[in-house]
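The pair is quoted verbatim below.
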Amino acid sequence: MAGAGSDEDILDLDIAELGRRLRDGRLSSLGLVERTLRRIAECDPAYLAFYAVATDQALANATKADAELGAGHDRGPLHGIPVGIKDMIDVAGLATTANAPGRRDALAVEDAEVVKRLREGGAVIIGKLATYEWGTVGPDKRGLFPPARNPWSLEHITGGSSSGCAVAVAGGLLRTSIGSDTGGSVRGPAFYCGVVGFKPTTGSVSKHGALTMSPSMDHIGPMSRTVAEAAVTFDVIAGRSGEEAATRLLGRPVAGLKIGYARNWFACDHQVMPAVVVAVDAAVSLLSQLGAEVTEIELPDYPSLEVAAAAILHKESFDFHADALRNHPEAYGRRAFLSLAAGFAVTDAELATARQIGSDFTRAVNRLLTGSDVIVTVGALTTALEVARFEKEAVWTPMRTIGFNISGHPVLAMPVGFHEGLPIGMQIVGRHDDEARVVQVGHAFEQASDFSLQRPPKP
């Protein structure tokens, strides 16, 4: 029977199994969407992942998806699957608020390109997901919406700015979602919430219809429950198939692959939690046990790279927002205003120096990847911090992400352990346009461990 099975059983199946059931008649997209809407209604009052739930539109599109499958028109692996969209990406008929006071009623007149591709692939858009204001600092209770809450501990941060994407996936509301990443905004929430985040190669996914933060550093990518689901989602939004698909090496063994382990980026840093070092070391050891050849390498000095990347981000963000900051300051929350306005202080000479540091870093990573199939390093140096620390002012959370927004390499973020009930994550970095190799390594690790199977307590 198409509607058989409890919500608990159905919604915890991965996209591949959901797809099989949609196609053999054991499940309908309408039934799946109805179950998803019920779980959102039950759990999201605690999580606050959603800004808007497109109930009527989602039910109508699910009905359409069922009719198409019934007629033999199969649009691909996401056909009939619910997907959530970060609220910095346009979905026609819904507001794209960026969590900013001045954008409460900023209705999108057409879909962003990634949303168009999802619809073409048969996905059912179910709503808009939480973000830190304009992708800047957070969490901030004075935003247009209250901050999303980490399912592993409601008193700890989600990371940002794609906070709602991570929360919806970690909390079991969705299997996959679409976020954006300018300095780690897909990967940071993935580390802190224990999900998979995928920042693809620069230019591989269209940014048309997504709000701009920093043009040279902005990326759009999936946040999903598993590596395979992130890869499937990426292939749909990037238009990849066949020999170009990120999924093409799924299930292949990693024996003989060369992994460069960039331990120098975190192991001796005074900010790092010992538990993080232990977890990432253990993850790399497991990859070695699977047959990969691990060699310790050294990436360029991170602190100077972070300063350079921050200068580029702040300068580009300020240039984009300068007129609005000057003429409509009331349209911004205080923290976002201050963060965006900071770019005013970046001189042309400082920007040129920062871009040179970024170029040098890109070349260094490319050189290291000539001798390695992928590079593995830490994600964040700590587990999620307590929300209370952010009440009075913004707190810089130590991550190792932003350099790859400059270099443009594809990066997979995934969970590798827990400390006191909070997730720990690592990054797998690949050559430009070699998403498939990154996915292969991440999937092999995931299949040999149980971290992706862990679930947070019910709210």
